[in-house]
Amino acid sequence: MIRAKIGGIGYYVPEKVVTNHDLMKVMDTSDEWIRERTGIQERRYAKKHEETTSTLGTKAAKIAIERAGITAKDVDFIIFATLSPDYYFPGSGVLLQRQMGMQGIGALDIRNQCSGFIYGLSIAEQFVGTGMYKNVLVVGAEMHSCGLDFSTRGRGVTVIFGDGAGAVVVQPSEDDSKGILSTHLHANGDYAEELAYINPGAHGGVHAEDKEQFGYPDQEFGGMFLTEKMIKDEDLFPNMNGQVVFKYAVTKFPEVIQEALDKNGYTANDLDMFVPHQANLRISQFVQRRLGLPDDKVWNNIQKYGNTTAASIPIALCEAWEAGAVKDGDLVCLAAFGSGFTWGSALIRW
């Protein structure tokens, strides 16, 4: 296998800053309540009808491609991770491809939510490692602001999420001792509904009054994506069982990080930088304590951007690299946990 590396990295966040105080104007919440539970102080929102998930991703991708020392024409394959695509279908990968003039190459969309970037990075590593592709563009992008419930009812979810995009170019490493050392992916669908955006969907969330009203026979009604009752009940927003998510996350985060360290013969003391998915500052701090890492070896930016799901790791990793906190030869661990439940880690010699 050829060793794969991150050859270029970039990120983009929208200009509009939305503070906790801004959210207080539209829902019953407070700056103290949000900070205490999540650590978030502000987040970014994209311009509706002007920016989309794919346009955010394109801006991040252009930076990553330039830093990789290549052009868009050199990219062999696109992997786009998001839970907030421009369209229900097709995926955002082909839209980014169109915007960047890279027609003809493959574009893969993956739906692993908060773990999406780790999953995408792992796929890219395999493509490069087998020699199938030389320049794989991995993008994580989200535009959460277009699908959140901006009322007191939805505050538990809405205050957490923000918009943004990050991207990397995965290439063969000239030095076999550097690059992506290993990736580790896991899932447990038993908890799928604990953190989910269920409607609209093809699961046939049918109610008797819907069937009567529309007169659909049973075998046809299950094909509906959206029902009148869903609209009437405003059952069209993400939901989260915060306690269950937190409990599972603080268990699986350390486990998958230790799995990566054990695989490569390292301990937490060997890490130069840990970049967690920016789900909740309290989760990151709990994992930091479990690993015994000092503050200067953990990169958190959820305070500024909120949870940008698939985009959060590449945004944070790029920030850390730009700040000089990730340097040549550093041992870097990435880890994520989210909806699915899915979780994963990647260990990298930078």
Report on the structure:
There is one protein chain. This protein has a five-stranded mixed β-sheet, with helices on both faces. It has 350 residues and is α/β, with parallel strands linked by helices. α3 (53-67) packs across α4 (92-100) and α10 (242-264) packs parallel to α11. It has helices at 20-24, 31-38, 53-67, 92-100, 116-129, 155-158, 208-214, 218-221, 228-232, 242-264, 281-291, 302-305, 312-322, and strands at 4-12, 16-19, 42-45, 77-81, 106-110, 136-142, 164-172, 179-187, 195-196, 239-240, 273-276, 331-338, 342-349. Helix content is 34%, strand content 22%. The chain has three domains: 4-172, Peroxisomal Thiolase, Chain A, domain 1 (3-Layer(aba) Sandwich); 179-193 and 239-349, 3-Layer(aba) Sandwich (Peroxisomal Thiolase, Chain A, domain 1), CATH 3.40.47.10; 198-232, no CATH class. A hairpin with a 3-residue loop joins β12 and β13 (342-349). It contains 13 helices and 13 strands.
Sequence-ordered SSE layout with sheet pairings:
Blueprint: E1 4-12, E2 16-19, H1 20-24, H2 31-38, E3 42-45, H3 53-67, E4 77-81, H4 92-100, E5 106-110, H5 116-129, E6 136-142, H6 155-158, E7 164-172, E8 179-187, E9 195-196, H7 208-214, H8 218-221, H9 228-232, E10 239-240, H10 242-264, E11 273-276, H11 281-291, H12 302-305, H13 312-322, E12 331-338, E13 342-349
Parallel strand pairs: 4-5, 4-6, 11-12
Antiparallel strand pairs: 1-7, 2-3, 6-7, 8-13, 9-10, 12-13
Helix pairs in contact: 3-4, 10-11
